[in-house]
Please model this.
Amino acid sequence: MQLFSRQKPLVGLDIGSSSVKAVELRRVKKGFELIHAGLEPLASDTVVDGAIMDALSVSESIGKVFSSQKIKTKTVATSVSGHSVIVKKIPLPAMSDEELEESIQWEAEQHIPFDIADVNLDYQVLSTGSAGSTEVLLVAVKKDKILNHTNVITQAGRVPLVVDIDAFAIQNAYETNYNPAPNTTTALLNIGASIMNIVVTRGGMPLFTRDVSVGGNQFTDALQKDMNLSFEEAEQVKQGKSIAGVQSEGVASLVQSVSEVLMLEIQKTFDFFRATTAGEQLQRIYVSGGCAKVEGFLDLLQSRLGLPVEMLDPFRNIAVAKGIDLARLDEVSPSMAVAVGLALRSFDN
Model:
């Protein structure tokens, strides 16, 4: 969803529930090079289920990540997810671009559960069938959801030029880094602190997207309550770091029980996907977001779903400029997939 036309460099700015992430890339001979990457933590309840609750705190964090990484570019691409975002594939009769432009508003009214006056609409023609039909990907986002993000960015002294959705940003990062074969059907799970984005993609097309309100906070909350830990201690234990007086057996069983909740949502989503798209078989799963680093979670996912599961590396195919702290980059990279996908919007045709 592009708010204004632009021919400018963009910083990918991902405002998540637990942190603000910023990524800037430049084009080089062999593809792309990372020139800036930063992550600034947010206090809990600053952003809840994708909605910014404390605008001042978020705008300060945006300022901090730009100044700490010495990012000079002011223009940004950001993204949204959650219940205010609707992505639907709709079949339409074959028509010219002009006719489609005219009729899309009316078509959207039939498929979107919000008042059409309250949303920003965008669409993309996916395919034109031989039987004279056209498949269109329709995206609608509530205007107040977009303003919730763009106002904070403006408040931080930056200029929001592109508003995307998390699911498409993740797909963008995946395709740039993995060059998947056109016939490979892959599931991308981006599991943040409070929202899980699920995308099933094949041949550069999103076949299915869903946002679920579960995430890494569930692990942290359970560890805090059951083991009487602080938020910071629980975050460390969650990632497999040892803390004096905390038994690893107890941690493993807690992580297992919370993983079951996430697993159930993932399984339900995949079952629904298979039921609604005849003949599609998932071949591989990539996981990004902070949850990708939860001790034992990926192994559990692989054994439960019977599919190869790996952590998505958003910098796998991207060169890294001198001066970037590689150890820090490695530590935060699972959380940077959305920001990388957004930064790639700089190079859209």
The longest strand covers residues 31-41. The domain at 85-140 is CATH 3.30.1490.300 (Dna Ligase; domain 1). The chain has three domains: 1-84+143-179+317-349, 85-140, 181-313.
